[in-house]
Amino acid sequence: MNAKPWRDRVREEDELVEQLQLLVSDSAKRRALALLEGVNELGTVANVARELGKSWNAIDKAIKKNGPGPTTE
């Protein structure tokens, strides 16, 4: 059995971690946009939080951290 050298395995795992981090980041952005849509529909962050059974603070942080930034014209 020819096992891959450990350096190659580490490099492959590093690449996988990077890919997964990008997927998580993209997912968090899409989730924040969906939460904003919920705020637009239900009126407040608190209403969205109640609907989802989460704290308003968690919803607010997710939107602020991952949502679109302020727009400048």
What does this structure look like?
- The protein is mainly α and 73 residues long.
- The protein has helices at residues 6-42, 45-52, 56-66.
- Helix 1 (6-42) packs across helix 2 and helix 1 packs across helix 3 (56-66).
- The longest helix has 37 residues, at 6-42.
- The model has no long low-confidence stretch (mean pLDDT 94).
Brief overview, please?
With 73 residues, the protein is mainly α. The protein contains 3 helices and no strands.
Q: What characteristics describe this protein?
A:
single chain, 73 residues, mainly alpha, 77% helix, elongated
Topology record:
Elements: H1 6-42, H2 45-52, H3 56-66
Helix pairs in contact: 1-2, 1-3, 2-3
Provide mean pLDDT, rounded. 94
Distance between the termini: 62 Å
Helical stretch count?
A: 3
Question: Helicity, in percent?
Answer: over 70%
Shape: elongated
